[in-house]
Amino acid sequence: MRTPGGVVVKQVLGAFLVISAVAQSHAQEGKSVVHPAPASQVITVTLTDLYPKKHGGVSEVVIAQAAGFPTDTCDVITTFDVVKKYEERQTWSNVQQRLDIVVDGKPYPAKFRDIGFYPLGLNLACIDFESPFLHAELKIPVLPLDHDSSVSSLSYDDKEIAKSNPGTPFLNNEGEISSVLTASDNGQLEFASADDIRVFLMAAADVSPWPRLSRRSYTAI
Fold this sequence. Notes:
CATH class: Mainly Beta
Strand order of the largest sheet: 3-4-5-8-7-6
Structural class: alpha+beta
Helix content: 25-40%
CATH architecture: Beta Barrel
Largest sheet: 6 strands, antiparallel, barrel
Strand content: 25-35%
Radius of gyration: 24 Å
Number of helices: 5
Distance between the termini: 108 Å
Shape: globular
Number of domains: 1
């Protein structure tokens, strides 16, 4: 036998669940759903250790790898983790290493543009081709940055995140980069927003990837 009090409690709980579902639905409606960029728009950055063989030749071992994407300022932006070991060991005489930008499965020699250790607190790195002409020769399309987004306003699919590598850009419905998947020191996955990337690029633009050439004055000739 049901008591009136029990019926009232069930009605209240039912109303509460309905209100919660409606509130959650409205919260999701206010967010922009983003998805990882397709593989054709993602570039890989690798760090390789080189070991001499006993009978000649060199053995190559890839020790770090991350996804990345091209920009007009940096040839590729990726996570700082992939070049952290490179930066730490680049002055070691007993270690030979090579940084590569991989395009369509082919590695091209690259270099790390040092603009500070975790600049602006972002786990991002600026990578450039060794050759200043390769970016233009390869005709790599640059994805635009979203001008109206923040990390809190974006909605993700957990399954897509689980399948994505750090450095993967996430795009809105217009094909613009709204955020990029990064990793923190404790191993947790985080996202840098399009605004974060834009600020990072401004810092990178102040550091030339190539040696600056100065002209000799006529008085010095």
